[in-house]
Write a sequence for this structure.
């Protein structure tokens, strides 16, 4: 995949319906895996709002499961790396934009990106000076990959910050179709 | 009794090394530092209570995320994280209390990758090890260093 992206070849996702069960299971696995790698003296805790994904029972969202998982893990890994000690990382789902998108968001308290840095952070290889200070090694390709995954899904990565609270919310937005669409699919 | 300071920024690797140390040195006093900035901050304590052996990962990040994060000094920006451990070793050698404290530099890099940097290192007190799943050479080096001190 990395070779394809590097050569400019777009991803070709194999789309299946995204279910609430799959999202919650994937998130919990990702969070548990991340937790085992973190320094117990300073690690953040994770709060996954399992009940926030019920919209997927009604709304039809298609994803490539492997790519979805990859994007989710990138966001959780970044949140863990850049969070202040012993803070909480929140993972939530919601239907947004008049319910035309399913949004998965990861909210953390830690290093902030400036406006210009938000624009740059999906560029391949780019890392902010603050990020370089706290990670040392790092390729700076996580959000670049996540961005390509979302483009392939006709969705987007959005980053929203609240400087006073040192809060960053990274959102993955996937197109969603109405309950009527699901009913129509079932009949057909 | 052996007093070892481990300077390693990767938590899992630090845990693995600590486990090996506890298995081979039953009377172990173990300290762990995880960033170059923390090492600098603790240097006065280290010089006041020099460990028997200091194990230093060559590639260390500068600091952990915090609201009042210390800025990277120019030396760190220019040198980069991949020689942080060598900077820590140099700082030890500049102090009379730790000038001869045995140091083990651990790294995934090959020695040939650090030829220029290692020229300034006194190999009588600093040993270079490439990280490996076989920890026996590391344990032997620590045991030798600890024995020399006694």
């Amino acid at each position: 995949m990395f070779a394809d992206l590097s050569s400019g070849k777009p991803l070709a996702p194999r789309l299946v319906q995204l279910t609430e069960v799959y999202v919650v299971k994937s998130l919990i696995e990702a969070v548990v895996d991340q937790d085992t790698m973190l320094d117990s003296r300073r690690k953040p805790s994770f709060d996954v709002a399992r009940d926030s994904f019920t919209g997927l029972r009604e709304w039809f969202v298609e994803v490539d499961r492997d790519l979805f998982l990859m994007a989710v893990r990138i966001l959780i890994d970044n949140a863990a790396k850049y969070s202040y000690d012993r803070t909480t990382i929140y993972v939530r789902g919601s239907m947004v934009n008049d319910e035309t998108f399913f949004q998965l968001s990861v909210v953390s308290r830690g290093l902030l990106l400036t406006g210009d840095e938000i624009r740059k952070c999906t560029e391949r290889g780019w890392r902010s000076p603050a990020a370089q200070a706290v990670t040392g090694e790092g390729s700076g390709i996580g959000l670049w990959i996540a961005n390509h995954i979302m483009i392939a899904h006709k969705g987007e990565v959005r980053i929203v910050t609240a400087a006073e609270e040192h809060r960053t919310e990274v959102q993955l937005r996937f197109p969603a179709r109405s309950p009527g669409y699901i009913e129509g699919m079932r009949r057909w | 009794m052996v007093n070892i300071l481990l300077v390693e920024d990767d938590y899992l690797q630090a845990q693995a090394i600590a486990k090996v140390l506890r298995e081979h040195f039953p009377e172990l006093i173990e300290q762990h530092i995880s960033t170059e900035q923390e090492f600098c901050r603790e240097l006065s304590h280290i010089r006041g209570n020099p460990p028997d052996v200091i194990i230093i990962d060559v590639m260390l990040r500068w600091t952990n995320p915090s609201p009042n994060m210390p800025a990277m000094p120019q030396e760190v920006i220019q040198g980069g994280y991949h020689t942080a451990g060598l900077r820590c070793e140099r700082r030890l050698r500049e102090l009379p209390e730790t000038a001869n404290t045995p140091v083990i530099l651990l790294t995934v890099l090959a020695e040939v990758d650090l030829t220029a940097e290692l020229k300034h290192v006194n190999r009588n007190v600093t040993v270079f090890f490439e990280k490996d799943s076989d920890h026996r050479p590391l344990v032997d080096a620590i045991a030798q260093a600890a024995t020399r001190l006694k």
The two ends of chain A are 35 Å apart (CA to CA). The mean pLDDT of chain A is 92.
